[in-house]
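A reminder from the course coordinator: this example appears on the midterm review sheet, so study it carefully.

Given structure:
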């Protein structure tokens, strides 16, 4: 395996920095247009690609998330799209539908 010399480390860091810049730019545009964070949009996109029905395990696999992280992501999405008085205290099933 090749050694990680200063040039390779610098290239890797530059690649990571460029990826972060692109990701932050996309997330800012997403929030400006849809008022959603990128992880929330990823969740909705995964559901849309799978006929709007998935089990937590399947969502975790697609989103590379652990169940507790996915739970927080779902909670933040619900906070973004529902008023506090309509948000259920305990969720067993969530049904999302698109509004055209």
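Designed residues:
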């Amino acid at each position: 395996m090749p050694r990680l010399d200063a040039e390779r480390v610098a290239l890797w860091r530059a690649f990571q920095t460029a990826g972060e810049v692109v990701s932050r730019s996309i997330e800012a545009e997403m929030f400006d247009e849809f008022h959603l964070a990128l992880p929330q949009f990823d969740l909705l996109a995964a559901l849309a690609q799978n006929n709007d029905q998935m089990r937590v395990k399947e969502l975790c696999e697609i989103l590379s998330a652990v169940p507790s992280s996915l739970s927080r992501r779902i909670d933040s999405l619900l906070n973004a799209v529902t008023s506090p008085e309509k948000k259920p205290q305990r969720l067993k099933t969530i049904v999302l539908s698109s509004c055209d």
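The chain has two domains: 1-35, 38-100. The radius of gyration is 18 Å.
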